[in-house]
Write a structure and sequence with these properties.
Length: about 70
């Protein structure tokens, strides 16, 4: 590695707005197990599957239909 690098011609990352943000979320064991089992079948990490599912819900503007009985 060089001792110094020249960043004078560097550009800002054009994809920076698309980067993921790390958060903490509490999920029950059954939900995690569900996504882990699917991840083993399709070969995608379970965190990525959860992200894909949530993104799909957001893109299609899906609403929850909950009714407490």
């Amino acid at each position: 590695m060089r001792k110094e690098y020249d960043f004078s011609k560097a550009r800002k990352n054009p994809y920076a707005t698309q980067l993921k943000k790390q958060i903490t979320i509490r999920l029950d064991e059954d939900s995690i197990g569900y996504f882990k089992s699917i991840s083993e079948q399709v070969g995608i990490p379970y965190q990525s599957l959860i992200n894909l599912y949530l993104r799909d819900c957001a893109v299609h503007n899906r609403k929850l239909d909950l009714s407490w009985k």
